[in-house]
Amino acid sequence: MCGWLLEDKEGGKQRIEEDETDGTASFVPESYEKFGWLFIQIENSNGLSKAFSSEKFTITGPLASLVCEINLDKDSVTIGQPITATWTVSGIDETALVSIAWYVSEKPGEYGEYYGHLITVSETESTFVPKKGNHGFASIFFFDTNGYTKSVDSIGFYILPKDSGDANGDGTVDIMDLVAIIDYIVTDTQPKSLVNADANGDGDVDIMDLVWIIDQIVGG
Ligand SMILES: [Ca+2]
Ligand SMILES: [Ca+2]
Fold it and tell me: Which ligand sits nearest to residue 167's alpha carbon?
């Protein structure tokens, strides 16, 4: 008896047995980025068996050497505002299909709702405007013409409510909100909205929220 042993990068193993009759065996891999071995197992009439295996071989695919790195123009975005992902790709075949996926969820770690579409290999940028949610991430997927899929890189971001930074709750984000947050940090005086005071949405009200608000005021 003989067969093939496959091992993926995470150590997952697969065993494919064959009914070998003429001293040869062949194998067509259905997925790639794996290692393989041919094994031969010989058993005598007493049930004793001995196994032999071949040298290790590597199964490569058209996307095997693909490298992609994705970045965002900001790490948090207010509902209704745009966030832009850019990426660099190397080792890609021009015939590959590429898809950008934006996910929006209420909690970190959840996939949530998917907003994605196919793009061309030469595209390196996508802009998304979240309409709800607390957390999001952007991910790039590649498909080759044989239907193999590879997700190469993804990056997460915070989604902030529309009134982020409006610590004193008067409807605008301005210097008075800085004063309210400084008051809170220094004297522990609660601002009208502690939720809005956590302007960057990271769960704490601190100097980074002052930086976020100054960025808003200066950047418009
Ligand atoms: Ca305000
Ligand atoms: Ca904060």
Answer: 1
Instruction: Give pTM, 2 decimals.
Output: 0.62
Q: 76 C-alpha vs ligand 1 centroid, how far in Å?
A: 19
Determine the Cα–Cα distance for residues 200 and 141; give it in Å rounded to an integer.
Answer: 29
pLDDT-derived band of residue 152, with 50, 70 and 90 as boundaries? Answer: confident
For residues 109 and 131, is the Cβ–Cβ distance under 8 A? no
pLDDT for the residue 94: 78
Could you report the per-residue pLDDT of 73-96, keeping only the tens digit for each? 999 998 888 999 999 988 877 778
| Nearest-ligand number for the alpha carbon of 171 | 1
Distance from the CA of 169 to the center of ligand 1, in angstroms? 5
- N-terminal to C-terminal alpha carbon distance within the chain: 73
Give kind and range of the element (H or E) at residue 51: strand 49-53
Give the closest residue to 21 by CA, choosing from 41, 40, 1. Answer: 1
Q: Give the Å distance between the CA of 186 and the centre of ligand 1.
A: 19
Ligand nearest the Cα of residue 199 is 2
Task: Look up residue 119 and give its two tokens.
Answer: 């793009």
CA of 77 to the centre of ligand 2 (A): 13
